[in-house]
Amino acid sequence: MPTDDFKGLFSDYLTHERQYSPETIKAYMADLENFQAFMKDAGIDQLDQVAYRDIRIYLGNLQRDGLSRKSISRHLSSLRSAYNLLLDRELVSENPFNYVKTAKTGLKLPDFFYESEIQSLFDSVQGNDPIALRNRALLEFLYGTGARVSEVRDLAINQVDLTADMVLLRGKGNKDRYVPIGSFCHDALVDYLENGRSQLMAKGHFDDTEHAFVFVNYKGEQLTSQGIAYILDQIVKKSATTLSIHPHKLRHSFATHLLNNGADIRTVQELLGHASLSTTQIYTHLSKEKLRDNYLQFHPHAKQKKERPKD
């Protein structure tokens, strides 16, 4: 099968059968296009002409280009999925990617804020103008619900129940879950929705019925993922912390702080929308302070030295 003919088939498969998020589909399609470019350079016209040695050369090229093990593993996963589809449709006789082992990436602990650092972020978001109200609500929502950036970006007003203090989040593969809204997040959302959002919508000449997205930019348009990341970056620049920030770091902080304060891991799994408990277990690491406190408290040789009795 020609490579160009397969692109549409693979895209439809990821969208309708696997129901992947737009970000995941974009990444998988980019990996496929990258491999197709390699095939063209190598003089391979048909997808069923790819052999194991071709894949090894391709992976070597990725390594020379400076891609991390994690990125290379993602490429392999994308292309293995593509060839599984070809195999299922009987367009190839075997999947050559099944013979390639995925490189071990090692355990990378999630990057998170300590509770004092979170407070520093919130302290930097002051003011009652529409932008300040939106930024406060956005920060409270990300940290207070552990939502993914795509879930926040696409959040509609009818998904937020401020009477019951619950929000309906639409996750990967259109899987829905309910997450409670805490008092800080509740107050920030009420303030923003009553005193900020309408003014931002008006600046873009929108009325409140034009669209239902909760978080909008200064022109009343739906915030993009890049826009959310930019807002968080500006918040950090105004805060006392010099650490980097990204939306997922707040999600990591949400999970870490829940577990550090005694939450059940199954509850955290449900709140995060993880299909597998093993995905959530990476958050069971202890914060550095708690790690040190536990060490000093329980290790016999870490406790304060007692004076040895003199002869």
UniProtKB/TrEMBL annotation:
Keywords: Cell cycle, Cell division, Chromosome partition, Cytoplasm, DNA integration, DNA recombination, DNA-binding
A Pfam family it matches: Phage_int_SAM_1
GO cellular component labels: cytoplasm
Domain Tyr recombinase: 108-296
Record's keyword annotation contains Ribonucleoprotein: no
Domain of life: Bacteria
UniProt-annotated location(s): Cytoplasm
Sequence similarity: Belongs to the 'phage' integrase family. XerC subfamily.
Subunit and interaction comment: Forms a cyclic heterotetrameric complex composed of two molecules of XerC and two molecules of XerD.
Protein known as: Tyrosine recombinase XerC
Chain's gene name: xerC
